[in-house]
Amino acid sequence: MAVERTLSIIKPDATRRSLTGQINARFEAAGLRIVAQRRLRLMRPQAERFYRVHAERSFFGELCESMCAGPVVVQVLEGENAIKRNRELMGATNPANAAPGTIRKDFGESIEANSVHGSDSSENAREEIGYFFAEIDIVG
Ligand code: IDP
Ligand code: MG
Fold first, then answer.
1. pLDDT tens, position by position, for the chain (140 residues)?
2. The pTM of the whole model exceeds 0.90
């Protein structure tokens, strides 16, 4: 198994409900170390850039709007198979379909307000981490 890094975002619906600590506790309990973290508010062009692979999707406008609706916490998680492990902790995109015990099942409000983002491949992880963090910000 390989030690990997993945980008996680705690979305506005979760920061609004003060769930950052509970979500971070799940990462740490699962062996994912938070090696960089910053709270910020996305501006619309930044959200559009981050989610540009979804630009043609019908929900793109709402997705970008919801990501700008309040603060987010962007973070780098590090650990064995971090990309897949984080996706397992997150659960399915739609909280209604997510397995019991996953973050989205327990905290997600809807498919738009599903509490967390996580990179889905090593290539995307590298790119997404680079969008928010410089190497010097990441302390393993
Ligand atoms: P993921 O976050 O599980 O990787 P993606 O397909 O990459 O899911 O979609 C990005 C985000 O867009 C999702 O987390 C969700 O908030 C939103 N989204 C995905 N599909 C839909 C949809 O059909 N309607 C509304 N929002 C959606
Ligand atoms: Mg995705």
1. 799 999 999 999 999 999 999 999 999 999 999 999 999 999 999 999 999 999 999 999 999 999 999 999 999 999 999 999 999 999 999 999 999 999 999 999 999 999 999 999 999 999 999 999 999 999 99
2. yes
Whether 63 lines ligand 1, by a CB cut-off of 6 Å, is yes
| Cβ atoms within 10 Å of 43's Cβ, excluding its own | 10
Structure-token pair, residue 32: 């994912």
Helices (H), 11-135: 12-16, 20-29, 44-50, 60-67, 82-90, 103-107, 122-132
| Residue 117: active-site member | yes
111 ligand 1 Cβ < 6 A: yes
Identify the residue whose C-alpha is closest to ligand 1 atom 17: 112
